[in-house]
Specification:
By secondary structure, the chain is an all-alpha fold. The chain has one domain. About 65% of the residues lie in helices and about 0% in strands.
């Protein structure tokens, strides 16, 4: 499994909706609906980051890095 696949699975498990999961890995819009939904992404970044922290914890803690 690639890192991108693992990240997608973690986002799904954290409850991040599919429309946003499709946009986060950096893929461009694949259809007109994606293009028009892209402006909503900024509003969800903080909330989705919090969901990910709740699911996998702080990345630096997972890697054993002292902050």
């Amino acid at each position: 499994m690639s890192g991108r696949d693992a990240y997608a699975q973690w986002m799904e498990a954290a409850g991040i909706p599919r429309t946003r999961r499709k946009m986060y890995p950096g893929h461009g819009a694949t259809d007109v609906q994606d293009f028009y939904e892209r402006h909503e992404l900024d509003a969800y970044l903080a909330a989705d980051a919090e969901r990910m922290r709740g699911h996998i914890g702080e990345p630096y803690l997972q890697m054993g890095v002292v902050k």
